[in-house]
Amino acid sequence: MVARSRDVDIRRICLRELDVLEVFDHTPAMIRIIVGGPGMGACITQGVEQLPMASTGFDDDVRIILPDPATGKQHLPSIKENGKLDWDPISLGLSRTYTIRAIDPDASRMTLDFVRHEGGLAAEWAATAKPGDKIWVAGPPAHASLPIHTDWLLLAGDETALPAIERCLEELPEGHPVIVCLEVAEREHVPAELNTKADAQIYTAIRSQGQSLPTLVHSLQFPEGEGFVWAGGEAMKLKPMRRLFNERRIDRKNQDITGYWRADTGVSRVAQAKKAREEKARAQVQQQRPAAGDPRMAALYALEKATSIAPAMVVRTALELDLCGLIYQGMDTAEAMAQHLAEEGRPVAVHNLDRILRALVPLQVVTWDQESKTWQLGILGTDFADPGSMVAHHMESTEAMAEFALFNLPQAVAGDTSQEIPTLGDSWMKLLEGDSYHSDAVADLEEALAHDAMRGAAAFPQAVDLAPYLQGENPSLKVIGAGAKEWVRHLERHYPGVQLSGSLWPEEEGADVIIAVDPWALQDQAGVVDTLSKLQCQHLFVLTPAQCAGQAGETAAEVIAEDLRRMCTTGGYVPTQEEALKEVHAAGWELMGQPIPCGWVGVLVPLKRRA
């Protein structure tokens, strides 16, 4: 996973009810709704205090949670004791993500823009919204900095990206070079005014005239120097643009590309959702059949499905070959796909390709059209075809890479972590030897085993004010653990004048304050106690995992998987809360206050030396 060059601050996601204040047309294709009221400030929801609404990034977004259109009932996520939202399938299904077009905290007003289109849950709500209506909003989850750290900026997108592009143009400093590429259905759908002080070149592609965003961007000559590209819109139209940016040597950390929506692939989203529900119901019936009143048979059937690695390997193969992308481009037979792959230097047998495609059918990735004798994208097909989708990101992520270490689980149970991790080519301990300590493989594995903890760097400044602990001349702050360098990079913005340093393991030299980032990720219990006991500081903050392990039968599946990945690589583990506190105490530390939620990525435990 490539880190973006924009600085990001993570904040706790808050839930609030807002009033609809104004509704009017921004363009013939866009409805503007201004919401606000008392809920914009600090408020109480479900008995939990919510932070005031804030937005500092031009592409910040919120989830609006809409009433059920069939019943009118409002389904909200519940708020846990630590303040985090617990989304259930119903509340998540009734929510939609929208960019914050503008915000005025002093006036308690926030602007949201909605593209007019048929069949959309949010679009239909917006079309009938009127002053006095209520709407529930969650977020924003994070704020990213304005991308003015490079020589020039490219903003590209369709109507769904327009709110972010307009806001970015308004916030750019005077004279900053920016190229704007917009795709709209009709020329009159471009806002009458695009206000900016930047040095802007604005180009438009009109769909009704056969023009498209990818063609427009491809036709442009990019300026000299380092550039940053931001693009949003229909996911599959962004795919060739990703390729173009790579070909033109735009550093991947300077590419911020988001698929806001996906065009239907011959079947409407409503029909797809209905089909998915029907197939899920049939699958549930099938799963219940083996039971026939016998719980043991039901358990055996579930075990058989759970122990098959075939679906996982088929999915990885489909993504590696980009089969869904080929179908989207019109190569809808195994013969056409095989010919294209051969031209790319990746020959495959047509018969074998058909077998992989058949295996994707029960996973709802592809379907077979008997009449035309062609392969079509299934409900999840566009997710596989879009390199920016959650599916693609997960399969390319370091967490997925670490999954292959689970083949070493029998040896790991015996305490043997010397086995080779297939995707890294060596064991964790071997990678730490000599110069390989600084290798990309070590950095990847760090992220794979402590990805949430590493993201805690962006949430820490909002969770804890370290100023009271960093007094006097030359105060010092040190970070140890996975992603320490990333933490230092984030903290530098918030603590100027403080001596900052970071390392994977403790060093002899101490500091006024030390932050230990998820020490359980990279070592066993004895190692954690040893590491914490060596720290030389007055105040210590330990970041525990976002979800600690629970008692037997109470641990979430994703926590179990994370725990096993750690066992098979570093010998680390996901502790229970009791284990974490016990090991902290054994290392000579005691609580300095109540644990503090760190955004949505973990919990900070403030500690001081035990007397």
Automatic annotation (TrEMBL):
Domain FAD-binding FR-type: 13-147
UniProt cross-references to InterPro entries, sorted A to Z: FAD-bd_FR_type, FNR_nucleotide-bd, Riboflavin_synthase-like_b-brl, SIP_FAD-bd, SIP_fam, SIP_rossman_dom, WH-like_DNA-bd_sf, WH_DNA-bd_sf
Alphabetized PROSITE patterns for the sequence: FAD_FR
Recorded coiled-coil stretches: none
GO MF assignments: oxidoreductase activity; protein dimerization activity
Annotated protein name in UniProt: NADPH-dependent ferric siderophore reductase, contains FAD-binding and SIP domains
Protein's organism: Corynebacterium spheniscorum
